[in-house]
Design a protein that fits this description.
Layout lengths: L4 E5 L6 H8 L4 E4 L11 H8 L6 E4 L13 H22 L2 E7 L22 H13 L4 E5 L2 E2 L9 H10 L4 E4 L7 E2 H13 L5 E3 L8 H11 L7 E4 L1 H4 L27
Parallel strand pairs: 1-2, 1-3, 3-4, 4-5, 5-9, 6-8, 7-10
Helix pairs in contact: 1-6, 2-3, 3-4, 5-7
Amino acid sequence: MKKYTIAITGSTGLIGSRIIELLTGRFTFLPLRMEDGIDITDSVGLKSKVQSLPFDFLLHLAAYTNVDKAEIERELCHKINVDGTKNLLNICESKSAKMILISTDFVLDGSTPGPKDETATPHPLGYYAQTKYEAEQLVKGKGMIVRITTPYRDNFPGKKDIVRTIRSLLEEGKPLTMVIDNLVVPTAIDDIALALGYLIEHFSPEIYHVVGPEAMSSYDLAMRIADKWHLDKNLISKTTHAQYGHGKAPRPQYGNIVSRKNIGIKMSQFA
């Protein structure tokens, strides 16, 4: 089998860095980094730096992800999430390279608790979600769209995921208020990386959900974290989705996304 070269944005982030760690050897990675002067929002400069690079796939993880600030910094959010995606897609099409866009469960409104698979109709609530959906619309039918949710990993100094954030606060003895009437699906980043390896080798321009096997409330997630690391559960109190969301950008209440597609990877149960 050919050893593909994968151009990748977001290569130093929480997910991208682990993808490279786990899949180097299986693929050759070509990071497209701001530190190297590659700005995905600058169509002319991007083309001059990337057009001639040799790659078979472009894995696009870089995004503006601050859900609340996106309501204020709309222009920046749109430039990164929509214009950046369009610029990268144009280069892929001109080179006949295949594009994989990493997206989010936020494109689905999560208004009902039932599971949402790849056929669910998107209905983004906030501006961040809207830009991710616009990016999906650009790529749909031309590249692969992979939606993920609530990613976590064992260690990453650059950024804490939700699991390590909750654990850290409990270890510090700080009280937490967690939502009891929502659903999240914790997803191991190692599983995401392995699933992407499979999807690269079995590429099809479709939508895939790469998610953990179980949905739970944020409150239940925190309680499980406390159990796993023997931390004080009395620090964890309850709130509702409506109370938590007061004054914040809208978020899906029930982020209960599932996959109906066999991606050849057994997703890990959260402890």
